[in-house]
């Protein structure tokens, strides 16, 4: 019997794309579909694979806390706990015009930030899309592109009129370069490894600040690279600028990482730098690398192993690969492909579209989870429009439940990371705010609630004392504030060597 059409409509995706949707009852149609019972049985299996018990979470937190300590004690650890040379919190009175350049995961952004004091600011910005080729091509070329965009931005926004640069004026620039860099001083950073799928050649092991300066010289711009920062450090400082209860910053986006403020006396590996032990310094944890290579602590499924083995960096970023937006869609896709291979799903249909790695966007998980309709129209739309696949209601319910398992696991693991910093710093009793940013945190329905639930599973009722909130723009505003703090510090003659 042909499927009966019961109505049509359209839905707009987060990407702005509009897709047409036809509702129909497919339970009786002629394609062979898995029964409700089969899907329920499979779901039970995945539930046990992807669920993290509170006890398991506490074990992870314990190992995580030890790993953080190790990174502070010794150089070159897997979780490198990078000293950033950002000393203490902003006063809120930082003022002036600053440029910020943000090389994250997807876009390149140039911003002009005017800090007005009292925690206020204005920002003008332009975004440039990075191509896959640029991410893999030669590193110097990538920095040439950054300098070129900066040049265009300055010409467009500061060539004439109100914002025009005064003769002799030199603008301080904060460069947010969100990859692990070990820093000897604030305007230096040796790229330890690319993450998030980047692989530009001749860059790992080199000072990216020097490479960028070389590109900048070609344009003779009145700009001085004042600080090289990580997005998490920027987020920490920007969030504290507007909410002084902020003690930790986390990014849950294409990548996953955290920064927090540490006592210099508790960072033994920088003892030799002659910094006052009573001073405070932001630490970029690079926690995405937790459990890399050894895979001792995290509950990896075989899908996670495939994601890892087929990535451009096998063994690396083990924690990040279970959490970040770059990988969640791929994990779900691999489960679906297994069920296709086992002959459970989509029998008699052509599944080639779904068989392409990374084709299942993490945004689809968000959309499936937030589908408000009983028939799961959004899920129908995704599968018919993007993959030309027909689904039954039982299958769609299964897909949505699977998205929930994967999304929930990511949030609960994130809670483990936050809990490790909270335990290490003793913030549980007094409580603290955690500034959070990134597409997962901002767009995935229920992600923040699941992190909070996870914190309560770890700490009991006191877990309520730790609250995440949407962070200020760390890579733009944060970068500018750090450039301002650094300029003030250097003008005051403090720790000129770093
Ligand atoms: C990756 C990068 C890290 C960054 C994070 C979030 O983990 O290594 O530097 O902070 O992604 O963008």
From TrEMBL:
Q: In this protein, which residues make up the domain named Hexokinase N-terminal?
A: 43-241
| Pathway terms, separated by semicolons | Carbohydrate degradation; glycolysis; D-glyceraldehyde 3-phosphate and glycerone phosphate from D-glucose: step 1/4; Carbohydrate metabolism; hexose metabolism
Domain Hexokinase C-terminal stretches? 247-485
Q: What range does the record give for the signal peptide?
A: none
Q: Which GO terms describe its cellular component?
A: cytosol; mitochondrion
- Superkingdom is Eukaryota
Q: Reaction catalysed?
A: D-fructose + ATP = D-fructose 6-phosphate + ADP + H(+); a D-hexose + ATP = a D-hexose 6-phosphate + ADP + H(+)
Q: Which GO terms describe its biological process?
A: glucose metabolic process; glycolytic process; intracellular glucose homeostasis; mannose metabolic process
Q: Name one GO molecular function term.
A: fructokinase activity
**What is this protein called in UniProt?**
Phosphotransferase
What's the source species' lineage?
Eukaryota, Fungi, Dikarya, Basidiomycota, Agaricomycotina
